[in-house]
Every structure is written in structure tokens, then in C-alpha cells.
């Protein structure tokens, strides 16, 4: 067969990603869906354990407090995921904890009025109640922007070109959670990375009863193998005389979660006591809520593509943000030590498994709620070394970033204007947060360091986030630089029909509310 001529080669833009086995509203068999849901639950454990493991000791809490916070975070994650998949955007997204809230929460921990409390447990409870109060107040930002449809109006300024750096940096911006963590225990991290890539990509043609079992369950299989290998190394005494940091990252018995966890414990609102409210804390937390808003907007768009759906209409996106605001309110009421955002790693897993089914994510939410109540069993899975998760993140964060880059197909990349905007937004989105991180590591405070603590928290939180910096730069340049004559180059004609619910017939299939609720909440 004669080779095609270069001028005959064409890759036309496609507003729905092809090649998925199951899209948003098609479902695998119940057995396969349950196994896939459990796989999403295991992946969500990484962030759910890491955030409390870092913050609780700083607050004066012990291992028992850490376990309760992990259980509470998973419980609320399950509730928020169900709410989002049923009544929010209805995209197959896990709503998990967010690292964006770390900056204002650490600032609250170091507040002089709390730091001077001598009794560790009392300091932990007082700090937790202060964080809860800040989360409850700041959640109003997303609730108002979402349900008033103000975010829908804002999103009309987002073109495919403007969203490329934002979505790309939702993945690339988390590079410090990837290989730098793998490098802390290479004897576990490197084999995990190799095994996951081998199973999910090179051996994906291996079928059992017409099911590509290695591709579909690459995460579960590789985690099981490497976890057993890590336990073998731990039991054999391989880390007995190694430095403390190596033991924390490599051993399977250092989390102290199983021994500290109760058999059964149901988290409930205000379980830590009545929240306390401080205006300065709330203002600082509002910046994290804005960062969560930006990161989730980008992750929703990535999830829509990996679920083989059309881009979510503006009012659907805004509706999802409103429900995420409710999620942050629940986080404050229950006391999770983190706000809510779309879990980027779980979005990446949609692409890795090629299953974008909504039902799978709802099943994973059921696992989160179930295992958060059965403390011992949940703690068993939560004791997986974080290095194993970091190896998987190297693949999944990169996959989400590449989905962002795929939006370039709707734009004209032979335009100097588009090259300038894309390049500058990507570079500054990586460079500015890196400067803020390095400055903070050396000076023990962010570049914004005035007498107004809330102002410092606000600026430092915003500029710590790569997607937030990318959105500010890309959307500003895209809507001010020769914008009148470049609608086609920016890719706007491709997204115009998805701005309104009735602009495309597929929107009804993907985004209609269940239980015939659209009668009471008619789409715009």
C-alpha cells in the first residue's frame, strides 16, 4: 500500500474523545463496576491520608486524632462525590481533599493565640475548631458564585486556548507530588512506576473472558504486588538501620493507623465541638476556596473529555461549583482539615482504564463511606506507603495535563498570538509558584509578608497554585490581546454551541438532572 502524502494526512478536531470502552452514561457489568469503584477508592486514599498525616501532628494531635480525621475526610468525600455525580455537573469525578487549603490552615496552626496553648490535645481541638469556622464562612464564595450563575457568566470568557494552560497545569503543577516523593524510597517507587505502565499500556491486550484485565485493573494489581513486596522488605528488617525519613516512606508499619483506628465509628457534624470564627482566618481561607474553584473548573473540563462527553455547558459548570461549595461547608461542619476539590488523580484514572462511567464513581463513593465507618478495615488500606501512590501520580497527573494540551486542536497554533499566550501562561504558571515555594522554604514565610496576616495568606495561597496563575495570565491575555479579530484562532466557534444547554442535543444526554428534576430547575 502506498504511503500517504503529507498533505493528505489530517487529524480533524473532535469535541468528544474517542477510544473509551465506557463513556459517562454507559456502564460495565456490576462485578466489573464494583471492582473499578474499589480501585478509585484506593487511589483516593493517597491524598486523604497524606493531608491529615502532615497537619494533625503540627496541631498537637496524636495517632488517634489522625485516624479520626482520615475517617472523617473519607466519609465527607463519599457524600460530596455522590452529591456532585447526582446533582452537580454529573461528571464522573471524585471530590476529594485539596492541597490548596494547606497554606491558610498552616497559618491558622501558627496563630499565636492557638500556638501558646500548652496542652497538645486542647491545642489540636482549638485549632480544628478555628479551621472549621474558616471553612464554613469561606464556603459561601463557591455557593454564591455557583448558584447565582455568576461563575457561568465568567466561564463565557474561557476559550479553548485560554483553558489549555489551566488544565495542563492542573496536572503538571503537581510534579512535586510525583517523582520527588518516589525518590524517597526508590526500591518501592521505581518498581511500582514500571509495573503500572507495563500493565496499563504494554500488556493491555491481555484478555481474560474478553476483559482486558491488566489494563482495567492495573492500579489494583500493581499496588497489591508492590505493597506485598514492601511488607516483605519491612518484615525482613531491610530498613532496621536506615534513617528515620527512609523508614517513614518505605515501611508498611509506620503509619500507626490500624492500631489507632476504632472498629466502628460514624463521623458526625460538630464532632470536635462548636466551630470558632475569626475574620482573618476566614479571609485567608477564601483564597483557597478560589483556588479550589479554578482547579475544579479545569478538572471538570478534563473529566468531560476523558468520559467521552461534550464540554459542560456554562450553567452545568456553575451548578457543579455550587455543589462543591456545599461540599466545603460539609467539610467545615464535620471537621476534615481540608476543603473540597476535584481529585485530579481520579480524573487521570478514567483515561488509564478507558472507563468514564458515572456509576463506577458513585460505587467508589459508597466504598469511601463504608470503609470510613469500619475503621480497622479502612485503616488497613490507608497504611499503603505514600511512595506507591506517588509512582501512580507520575502517570495520572501527566495524563490529565495532556488532556489540557489536547484542547490546542481547536485553536490555530500557526498564530504568533496563540503561541505567545500559551507559552507565557504555561511558563509563568510553573515559574511563579516555584518562586513562592522556594522563598517560603528559605524564609519560613511567603513573599507576601505584611502585618495583615489575612492579606499574606490570600496572596500566598493564590500564587502557590499553578492553575490559578495560569488562569490569571491566560484569560487576561486571551481577552485583551487582539481578541476581536481572533475568535476563530482562539477556538471559540467550537465551544459556542456548548455554552447553553440547548446548544447541542448531546448535552441533555450527559447533563440532565436525575429524577426528572429539570422540571423544577430548567436549564438555561
UniProtKB/TrEMBL annotation:
Q: What are the subcellular locations of this protein?
A: Membrane
> Molecular function (GO) terms listed?
transmembrane transporter activity
Q: How does it sit in the membrane?
A: Multi-pass membrane protein
Q: Where is the signal peptide?
A: none
| Annotated transmembrane regions | 38-58, 130-150, 157-175, 181-199, 211-230, 360-379, 386-407, 419-436
Major location, coarse class? membrane
Fetch the InterPro entries from UniProt.
Answer: MetI-like_sf (IPR035906), NCS2 (IPR006043)
Gene Ontology cellular component annotations, sorted alphabetically: membrane
Tell me if Transmembrane is a UniProt keyword of this record.
Answer: yes
| Annotated Pfam families | Xan_ur_permease
Keywords linked to the UniProt accession:
Membrane, Transmembrane, Transmembrane helix
Report the domain of life of the source organism.
Answer: Eukaryota
Q: Is Nucleotidyltransferase among the key words of this record? A: no
Homology family? Belongs to the nucleobase:cation symporter-2 (NCS2) (TC 2.A.40) family.
What is the protein name for this chain?
A: Nucleobase-ascorbate transporter 2
